[in-house]
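Known limitations

Structure tokens in this collection are predictions and should be treated as such. Users comparing against experimental data should check residue numbering before alignment. To illustrate the layout, the record for Mannan endo-1,4-beta-mannosidase is reproduced below. The input appears on top and the generated tokens appear beneath it.
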Amino acid sequence: MESQLTVLVLLLSSLVLVLLLSSLVLISLILHPPQSRPSILDGTQIQLKSVTKNNYLSANNSGGSAILASQSSACGSETFKLWRITETKFQFRIFNWRFLGLDDQDNLVATSTSSCDSDSSHTFEIVRNDDDPNRIRIRAPNGSFVEVKQEGLVTADNSEDTNWGDDDPSIFLLTNVRQIQAGEFQVTNGYGPEKAPSAMMNHWNNFIVEDDFKFMSENGLNAVRIPVGWWIRFDQNPPHPFVGGSLQALDNAFSWAEEYNIKVIIDLHAAPGSQNGWEHSGTRDGTQSWGKTDDTIKETNAVIDFLTSRYANRTGLYAIELMNEPLAPGVTLDHLKKYYKVGYDTVRKYSDVYVIMSNRLLTRNPTELIRFASGFSGSVIDVHYYNMFSKVFEDMTVQQNINYIKKYRASTIKSLTVSNGPLIFIGEWVDEIDVSVASKDDYQRFGATQLEVYGKATFGWSYWTLKNVRNHWSLEWMIKNGYITL
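Generated tokens:
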């Protein structure tokens, strides 16, 4: 099986099909059209400055006690992550999973280490000024507004109306420090339970259709890497805020793939607890929790069991990717290996398809899984290459980017390729560079260089993505407009 399928991939390199997760940026744009006030989505990081004290609200001792208006400048202890409950109601989280609430004297404190969407005792309403939406009041669970006392203590005992002036101790200036990109959690929770099902179904029914598989087949592409989230296992009754329908979309993709002789790689892109803290891993607020306990291994393996058993007899199934982009050091190598062993055994209960093990991002040793994976027949190591997201590439010219691929990426792929070792998969790459002005010829040369180098990977490559609102990230657009020739 191994040699035959390897030849297949080498002859016609594969691509990534973004079907369930990453394309959701298209949906997120609907949440706040340019003419309207932007919605505050889950994971937004904010800082709050009292207009009367001219100080920022701060988590005293990094949480576990009172919130004070005590700092003239803002950093970590003055930054709050929002959990969206409704369009105007939120829960505020700080360090160590502590949530804002009130003590017995209605003082604002950060002592609770747990909360849920139905917990009204930790839910606050943000009331925004119509003329200046960053000028806000905060209504506490007791119905009163949060205000700053003369000594800097923060309480919730203001029931007065306001003229939004600088003399009102209940007025705060909101600074949006960071808005997490819209992953599926942010999108579905942003739409809410009434609108999210129809919005998601519209996406699944229209973004990727049968004609896309025909296009891939006609352009020499022989496989698709389809990212899914862990909640697909509960598709009939998914946990809040996710909605059902992604499983049918995956079923459709298999049928179309088999119709056009295209192989399918199922990629677990979002693991329970989030393996990297990025929006495409299903995180709510950027927290990376996967691997903190063995329970996450058990829960993640249950998803692999579900997916493999469901699709094991489909002729299109080519590989199962146990996890996308685990991030070091949050995910330790020992814990990851433990999961990969369990996940590999689970796949083998049902099928002899390839089992893909993704390298950790930010690891100092790109070969750290090679010896481990060599002990598993039909194993593949997935590495992702972008000439972006790092200061290394910021000042590079087009030619320097090309030279980097030829020298460093080619050398790394060679070091990963060992006798009797796992196959190597360049699971994500894109014909995009961090250069302010680049011509079509520049992109053609950069893309051709990557195709040449990544084509030497023993399992092939996949492009991120088939379709995207950004032209260079859309392989379909790049092919149709002559930027990439396969």
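For this record: The first helix runs from residue 2 to 11. The longest strand covers residues 263-270. Please report discrepancies through the issue tracker.
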